[in-house]
Design a protein that fits this description.
This protein has one domain: Jelly Rolls, CATH 2.60.120. The strands form two sheets. It has a five-stranded antiparallel sheet with strand order 1-2-9-4-7, with no helix packed on it. Strands 3-8-5-6 form a four-stranded antiparallel sheet, with no helix packed on it. The model has no long low-confidence stretch (mean pLDDT 91). With 119 residues, it is mostly beta strands. The radius of gyration is 13 Å and the shape is globular. The chain has strands at residues 25-31, 37-43, 47-52, 58-64, 67-71, 74-78, 83-86, 92-96, 101-106. Strand 5 (67-71) and strand 6 form a beta hairpin.
Length: 119
């Protein structure tokens, strides 16, 4: 597969992608009853996410392509099947190649849908 199935890409769940750390990504988010989120990201073009951190843990797994996770001076090149846990409060950013697809689980609310953003 080179894309997530259509049922996972319902426009109602599309992530509002104007912030500097998700610009250039196509994402869809699903909320857990405990306030956590799962997001499915597709990178149509290469790019670098700006450094940021969360007040909750972030788990990610690469489905396709390559995502290089950076924390401080350490770089972790992740390929399909590789997974990583970013602890809460740790600054991080990433570098991705075109066609990269990842799945992220956040221990809190990380992403806003287009429908949640006021114009």
């Amino acid at each position: 597969m080179n894309d997530f199935p259509e049922f996972m890409k319902n426009p109602i769940n599309r992530v509002h992608a104007t912030s500097e750390y998700i610009a250039g990504l196509e994402g869809y988010v699903y909320d857990g009853a405990d306030g956590s989120q799962i997001a499915f990201w597709t990178c149509r073009d290469g790019g670098v996410a700006a450094e940021h951190m969360h007040p909750f843990d972030e788990y990610m797994v690469v489905v396709q392509g390559q995502y290089t996770l950076c924390m401080g001076s350490k770089r972790f090149p992740l390929r399909p099947g590789d997974e990583f846990l970013v602890p809460k409060g740790v600054p991080h950013f990433g570098d991705r190649i075109p066609g990269t697809r990842t799945i992220h689980a956040f221990g809190g609310k990380r992403a806003q849908r287009d429908s949640e953003v006021k114009s």
